[in-house]
UniProtKB/TrEMBL annotation:
Phylogenetic placement of the source organism: Eukaryota, Metazoa, Spiralia, Lophotrochozoa, Platyhelminthes
Protein name: 14_3_3 domain-containing protein
UniProt organism field: Taenia asiatica (Asian tapeworm)
InterPro entries documented for this protein: 14-3-3 (IPR000308), 14-3-3_dom_sf (IPR036815), 14-3-3_domain (IPR023410)
Domain of life per record: Eukaryota
Site, Interaction with phosphoserine on interacting protein: residue positions: 72, 139
Length: 246
């Protein structure tokens, strides 16, 4: 008789096997296979009314990051090509591809949001991670959908709730908290169009993290170092467009 534990173990192991190849080639067959396995894990956990483990949540994030990221990159490429396309026929083809990509992005993002729907928001890093993912995928929907108001509202709600929880439960140099601040500030800049709020949020996260570095060991945490650099880079770019008083 096959039990829940053995079935979960099988899907998790298959997802783990597919993961390295997915990182190497996000357009590969292995990325789609990884998505299939992590979906099965989430559905089994939901059926048993159980929370995802840390490894399972990370694989869920990685799997959809690859597939959705590929679609978003392609959508952005068509958006950049279209204004300079003077041939009427080619422009029509580009618009058609862009619409197809938009529909795929909206569908895949909604799939992720539904997969997360039954996961309980706990008062710890797992809860922040979950809310951040919800915010991210609503943001991706708002990015491509002309009717973005509802997506924007849901993204703002998730990011705000996640930020409140992160300040209560996580240190300023926690990678999940920093990643949330990075993505939330990008949302404010790109989707909401509020440069001032985006800069203030990014600057606050950066300053708090740098202030806490003396109390935390970030050696061997390249993700933290990378996020701090991305926050710096964004601030440099955004301030040139909308200077913030120091």
């Amino acid at each position: 008789m096959v039990d829940l534990a053995s079935t979960l173990a099988e899907h998790n192991e298959l997802a783990r096997i597919y993961e390295p190849r997915g990182k190497a080639a996000s357009t590969s067959f292995s990325s789609l296979e990884m998505v299939g396995e992590v979906k099965a894990v989430v559905q089994l956990r939901d059926a048993a009314q159980e929370q995802l483990s840390m490894d399972e949540r990370n694989r869920l994030s990685v799997a959809y990051k690859h597939t959705t990221g590929r679609l978003r990159t392609a959508w952005r490429a068509t958006s950049e090509i279209l204004p300079s396309t003077r041939n009427f026929t080619i422009a029509g083809l580009v618009r058609r591809v862009r619409t197809q990509l938009k529909d795929e992005i909206l569908s895949q993002c909604q799939e992720v949001i539904q997969l997360l729907a039954n996961q309980k928001v706990t008062q710890d890093e797992d809860g922040v991670f979950l809310l951040k993912m919800r915010g991210d995928y609503h943001r991706y929907q708002a990015e491509v959908d002309g009717e973005k108001a509802e997506h924007q509202l849901q993204a703002a709600k998730a990011y705000t709730e996640a930020s409140t929880l992160a300040k209560e439960a996580l240190t300023p140099v926690n990678s999940v908290r920093l990643g949330l601040s990075l993505n939330h500030s990008v949302f404010l800049f790109e989707i909401v169009g509020d440069r001032t709020a985006a800069c203030l949020l990014a600057r606050e996260a950066l300053e708090q993290a740098l202030g806490a570095l003396g109390d935390a060991d970030v050696e061997g945490q390249p993700e933290v170092t990378l996020i701090l650099q991305l926050l710096r880079d964004n601030l440099t770019i955004w301030r040139t467009e909308d200077p913030i008083d120091e």
